[in-house]
Amino acid sequence: MAMGADRAIHVEIGSAKAGGGEGGAEGEQGGELEPLGVAKLLAKVVEAEGRNMVILGKQSIDDDSNQTGQMLAGLLGWGQATQASEIVFEEDGQGGWKVRVTKEVDGGVETVRSPLPMVVTTDLRLNEPRYASLPNIMKAKKKKLEKKALADYGVDGGRRLRVVKVEEPPPRKGGGKVEDVDGMISKLKELGAI
Length: 194
Description:
The structure is a single chain. The chain is α/β, with parallel strands linked by helices. The chain has helices spanning 24-27, 35-49, 68-76, 134-140, 181-191; strands at residues 7-12, 53-57, 79-91, 97-105, 108-115, 118-122, 144-149. The strands form 2 sheets. Strands 2-6-3-4-5 form a 5-stranded mixed beta sheet, with helices on one face. A two-stranded parallel ribbon has the order 1-7. A hairpin with a 5-residue loop joins strand 3 (79-91) and strand 4. It starts with 6 loop residues before the first strand and ends with a helix.
């Protein structure tokens, strides 16, 4: 809140048992929600707050799944734009607003437009990070922080996914060097590539 928010909602999820395991990493929720649980929670918050736009990060640092924004848009039935590097609001000529979102893709940039309501996930190039100053940190202490429980929104925080196995990929064979183009062509023929 020291970086500009006027108020905040802190949803405490606790540590509830989840199906599918006997304890430890597989059986304990461990105070974490899966992307679908987060999307359901955010959908309830958006409905309660009466908002028409949600801006989320692209990925979280814990599981790097890049799913919550897309699931939220699906649950709300809203349009979505992912990996935004630029967001521009435009009047639609009928008293409403459209959002133009630009994102970087492999071949350049892609631009999409959608009327509000909309869910947008961001890319690191969307803005310059801001840092909290000491005066703003002091002001943030006076701002409203509403604490709620997951149950207040009627969302089940149980785990539906279980990590079965994590392993490194098999080691790759070493490459070979060739002296010239003719050597490369003969090597490719030998391997059956051409």
